[in-house]
Amino acid sequence: MNEKISSNFDALKEKVCDLLTKFNNSEVILEEIKDWKKTLLFLMKEKYQFYISSNGEELKYHDSHEKQADCVIKITTENALKFFNQELLLIEAFANNQIKFKGDNADFLKLTVLLEYLEEEPDLKLIDAVDDWQIGVPEDYGMSTPLLNEAANKLRVIDINRNSFIVVKNGVLIYETYYGKKSTEKRKWMVYDVASVTKTLAALVIGVAVTQGLITVKDYIHDWIPDAPKGIVPGSQIIHLLTQTSETEPPGTNFKYNSGEEINTLSKIISAASKMSTKEFAHQFLCEKIGIGNYSWDRVFKDQEDLPIGYGLKIRPRDAARLGQLILQNGIWAGEQIISKDYIEELGRPPFVDTNSGYGYLVWLNNSIGHWYRPFKNGTGPMIPNAPEDLIYASGFFGRFIFVIPSLDVVIVTFGKKFVWESLDTAREIYNAIEPALPKR
Fold it and tell me: Phi then psi for 425, rounded to 5 degrees?
């Protein structure tokens, strides 16, 4: 057999065994697997294979295994090595059939969760950040702890990889769970990959720049970035990037969901207007001001100065709730108007109703005023039928959400990893589980 493939497999086996040793020494991971007793088979196209098993107490590597695998992962040795080195972008790998499954893919995603936890597990002794959320109990705010516990349990049934569920009512953090007991404090301080929820952070950073008078949403993109990506048609304005309508002539007439270089042009615009890196601008004028101190970026973006717009943010659920609360409070935090009320109002309504009534400024909307379009679905009426029409939500692949419901004065954050191409399906499941615990309208 090809020597290079054989060498790659030897390196893969060494990498996997090393990772499993680290997994078995992680408090967070050991608690994560206590109810997960599964066997995974990695079947290489080059006829190599190996198993990873969990008995609820530890993870083991096997060259062969007597138990039938719960999930079979078909992948090349090269891509498997990239996966365990966290160099494989899962969305692209799934889309390009670089990874194929037989069995429950939730078990494979559990492995991706463990890799993420290993990378982000905090040393509590080194944390010097301060969290100033006001803490309350649900019953003081017209809600019920038993009903919220029931909702939390339902979320974990919907998605075995759900890692957080937070509820803020009237600006007070009244409920949170991280699906762990021994490792709760660590999980509370961990940052989680939130995929396209990154876009909502970006929309708020743009709002800061607009509020400071550095740009307007009507500015022409090519005036700021003459060599803008070819996909952005001439005449496109910042508002067209914010609404994902900049790639068809005339701008504003066609919705094309994008997480690539076109949407990332917003970052270059902020940098050009502010004369500083967009990461520094976001940190100084948004994150620091609303108390977000503990966040990071996917390793692909860690060394770049530009803020990734499409995806890449890693953030604590408590801090993601701050983004939602800032929207709920019309851009005000601790008495300071960080983002203008006008911009927040624009963010929460569709500027191009006939093009997509369900999309504002890089956020999803739940109104019933027209036809809405998602990446893999479209329709009329509220996207989440039983949710209030003033719902604004951030949505990330694998089911990461921030729900902002102004009429209930509620912000909900829940992250997880459920493989469904259309995240709206997961959003509906999750909202249905939570709705009985919400205040009545």
Answer: -60, -45
